[in-house]
Design brief:
The chain has 309 residues and is of the alpha+beta class. The chain is built from ten helices and 17 strands. It folds into two domains: 143 residues, PK beta-barrel domain-like (M1 Pyruvate Kinase, Domain 3), CATH 2.40.33; 156 residues, MoaB/Mog-like domain (Molybdenum Cofactor Biosythetic Enzyme, Chain A, 3-Layer(aba) Sandwich). It has a seven-stranded mixed β-barrel. A six-stranded mixed β-sheet has the order 13-12-14-17-16-15, sandwiched between helices. The chain has a three-stranded antiparallel β-sheet with strand order 4-3-10, with no helix packed on it.
């Protein structure tokens, strides 16, 4: 999808309307000579003409570009439907979406006092500069949604030999697709079935992290059986463990069903790839995924330095 730049705007003070200028320069801090530039995730603000036109009709008067303190007034993409980590690519610049909307300060904001309301809290977005350059009215950016990539791994000697059908892995895939379809968020999910073998698992994890997969979810091998090798394989590979999520799940379900306390599953980070090790039953997969999905996107954003609330 194409995003056309209609106006580029700057202001010397925060909370005030911005004035349209001929061209802006984007550097590692954001827009040069703009009050919002800095070492943070909201370096560049964008607002679509689609949103401005809707508000203008409601207000009963024309709204000037920059009046809602946006650096870039655009056309062609409904910006508030984008997601953090999506990107806009131009010939000279690259921007990464970091936040959708913002808190409205009401009468404390000069824009609110002057205009009477503000569309930015709901439909404006913010971005940070990935590649420095310049922008001017008439420039066109290519919108590319960020695709979250998952690898689901079933560990089972018998399923890998075709003795019985793997049910837990496909169930994780189904849950992921259903969850992210409702957001909506673009995802890709790969699924592998391997034996309960430490070497096979470590090689697969190393390849997935090298390929920059966002999340690896394993199912099986978290118990205390002689072939349960998942935890012993994954835990030493972690750069950072996230113990709270697995501890909470064990306590939540173990209170009524003590056998749930016997799972030794771990969660953590290898590079920028999150890894979750789940038990092998469909019932456990349902329970674990329900809790894991509550924080998954937030963790991904945190890893990329986004303070998204």
């Amino acid at each position: 999808m194409k995003l056309k730049i209609l106006s580029v705007n700057v202001s010397e003070e925060k909370g005030t309307v911005k004035k349209a200028i001929d061209e802006i320069t984007l550097n590692h801090l954001g827009v040069m000579n703009d009050a919002h530039a800095g070492h943070w995730h909201r370096q560049v603000s964008l607002l679509g003409k689609e949103s401005v036109d809707r508000f203008s009709a409601q207000a009963g008067r024309p709204i000037a570009y920059g009046e809602f303190a946006e650096n870039l007034t655009t056309e062609g993409v409904e910006l508030y439907k984008t997601s953090p980590l999506d990107r806009f690519f131009g010939e000279n610049v690259e921007l990464e979406v970091t936040q959708i909307g913002k808190q409205c300060h009401g009468s404390a904001c000069a824009i609110f006092r002057e205009v009477g309301n503000c569309v930015m809290p709901k439909e404006g977005i913010f971005a940070r500069v990935i590649r420095q350059g310049s922008l001017k009215p008439g420039d066109v950016l290519e919108y590319k949604p960020r695709i979250l990539r998952f690898h689901v791994v079933t560990l089972s000697d018998r399923a890998s030999k075709g003795i019985y059908a793997d049910r837990s892995g496909p169930r994780i895939v189904e849950i992921l697709e259903s969850h992210f379809d409702k957001l909506p968020r673009n995802i890709e999910v790969a699924h592998s079935i391997i034996p309960d073998d430490a070497s096979s698992l470590s090689v697969l994890i190393e390849k997935s992290t090298y390929d920059e997969v966002d999340v690896i979810i394993t199912t099986g091998g978290t118990g205390i059986g002689p072939r349960d090798v998942t935890v012993e394989t994954v835990k030493p590979m972690l750069d950072m463990e996230i113990p709270g999520i697995m501890e909470m799940i064990r306590m939540k379900y173990g209170e009524k069903k003590p056998n749930a306390l016997l799972s030794r599953g771990v969660a953590g980070l290898i590079g920028n790839t999150f890894v979750y090790t789940l038990p092998g039953s469909v019932k456990a997969v349902n329970e674990y995924m329900e809790e894991i999905l509550k924080t998954m996107e937030h963790l991904i954003y945190m890893r990329y330095g986004l303070d998204v609330h």
